[in-house]
Amino acid sequence: MSEDPRLVRLTVNGVEHAAEAEPRLLLSDFLRHRLGLTGTHVGCEHGVCGACTVLVDGAPTRACLMFAVQAEGSSVTTIEGLAPDGDALHPVQQAFHEQHAMQCGFCTPGFVLSTVALLEEKPDADDDELLDALSGNLCRCTGYRNIIAAARQAREGMKAGE
Amino acid sequence: MKPARFAYEAPTELEAALALLSDDLVDARVIAGGQSLVPMMNFRLAVPELLVDLNRIAALRYVRVDGGTLRIGAGARQAELLRDPAIEAGWPLLTAGVRHIGHPQIRSRGTVCGSLAHHDPVAELPALAVALDATMTVAGPSGRRRIPAADFFVSYYESDVQPGEILVEAAFPPVEADTGWGFAEIARRRGDFALVGAAGLVRAGADGRVAAARLVLFGVAERPLRATAAEQALVGSDGGEDVLARVRELVAEAVDPVADGHATAEYRREAAAHLAAEVAADAWGRTR
User: Fold this and answer.
1) Are B72 and A28 in contact (CB under 8 A)?
2) Which residues of B lie closer than 8 Å to A, measured between beta carbons?
């Protein structure tokens, strides 16, 4: 029984990583401070705002409500993993760009990953499911209309196989 | 905010988890989904010395229908219930209620058993367990206990899981034929905890009248509340507007909610009365 740091091995955006974490280190802080992946934003740090949403083994997850040690052996996708080469954007990112679905941009990584998670599980999600999927993310600029428009565009685009 | 220091163990066997919980001098907490516990730890409302993580215990990760009974192990996520059409077909009240839990990000990690053991009195699952007559199985140092939902929820954030024990399974018996369901809650925003909610089951008899009814309210008491007088009024009735008006009266008389920063007691009473009648009407409508 130990509070000491231990080695956490996991795959992030397809790359294997191993880094030390004491048990109390949140996955969000592990990604940002141990791995330098600062695209995962930390807003409320108690599971309300959704800014830190990442995919853990494909499932949308609040990285502030999970300890890094719990992610041992997992495969995590962060916003950095959606367009790894930096040239072609992921269809969801492209839709957010085209619909101007961001103002300050702080909440954007979480919204994008929530949208990706939904459309990967349910490419034919209806509007109600889309709103449910986005309801766990808050935009303090209140730019929801364009975010929803972008999510709809991404749905149509991914259906069409773009 | 950041949690205080704690020790962490993730055993792969239930027996090892129970052994870790057996030391009375260590303030240990069980974690599965962590969607209630981690916020409490981030706020340092919970400061356990040891976290015992159930997520590596493969034997607890199951959702299966077994002889007509739905069995949900302690490792099963809430979202898993929504992916299996057989669960929706057999227990539509359960899946309808689970859709109201938080957001997809919460349901993909939060567990059914975790929510039941945590027993937030405004959470959906405890009320659903009471409405659907679930049985909880708790493992402890001296073996297993089975506890009906009616006795499992004790008071605010308190269930019958004792120190040293782990809730390992929730079992939902088959719903009788000709039974309809209703579920409704009032929350400020989608995904918020409910201010008040109601779950109902109504069974139609061969005579076209209500043969059995079960109405459970949450957010109005320290635990899910059966509206027994309203249930009795429904039985034998035609499920029409007269009996629904009586349901509203009886529920308003039966509940004694408390006020808080979110709603007054009077608001909760009125909401409970209306939601009870709404779910009774919906349930009756779904019998036909």
Assistant:
1) no
2) 1-10, 20, 26, 34-35, 38-39, 41-43, 50-51, 53, 55, 77, 79, 99, 102-106, 108-109, 189-191
Query: How far is residue A99's CA from residue A111's CA, in Å, rounded to a whole number?
Result: 14
Q: Which residues of A touch B8 (CB under 8 A)?
A: 2-3, 23, 67, 69
A101 shares its domain with A140: yes
Query: Which of A1, A116, A130 is the best substitution to test chain B (most B C-beta atoms within 10 A)?
Result: A1
Residue B155 lies in a domain: yes
**Distance from C-alpha of A147 to C-alpha of A100, rounded to nearest angstrom:** 8
Q: What ipTM does the predicted assembly reach? A: 0.93
Q: How would residue A1 be classed by pLDDT, with cut points 50, 70 and 90?
A: low
10 Å Cβ neighbour count for B66?
9
Burial of A56 per CB tally in 10 Å (0-12, 13-18, 19+):
buried
B44 to chain A: nearest residue by CA? A46
B135 and B45 both lie in a single domain:
no
Residue of A nearest to B108 (CA): A59
Question: Would you say A69 and A21 are in contact if contact means Cβ atoms under 8 Å apart?
Answer: yes
- A65 CB near a chain B CB, below 8 Å? yes
Asked, for residue B1, whether it belongs to a domain, the answer is: no
pLDDT digits (tens, 9 = 90+) for A96-154: 999 999 999 999 999 999 999 999 999 999 999 999 999 999 999 999 999 999 999 99
Number of domains in chain A: 2
Q: Is residue A73 located within the same domain as residue A108?
A: no
A153 part of a folded domain: yes
At residue B243 the predicted structure's pLDDT band, cuts being 50, 70 and 90, is very high
**Residue B97 domain-assigned?**
yes
- How far is Cα B127 from Cα B198, in angstroms, rounded to an integer? 8
Last residue of a domain, one of A81, A99, A128: A81
* Contact assignment for B106 to A133 by CB distance below 8 Å: no
Instruction: Tell me the residue range of the domain where B162 lies.
Output: 61-172
Instruction: Check whether residue A73 and residue A99 sit in a common domain.
Output: no
- Pairwise CB contact (< 8 Å): B38 & A2: no
Verify that A97 and A151 share a domain, yes or no. yes
Q: Give CA–CA dist B36/B49, Å, rounded.
A: 17
Dump pLDDT digits (tens) for B24-82: 899 999 999 999 999 999 999 999 999 999 999 999 999 999 999 999 999 999 999 99
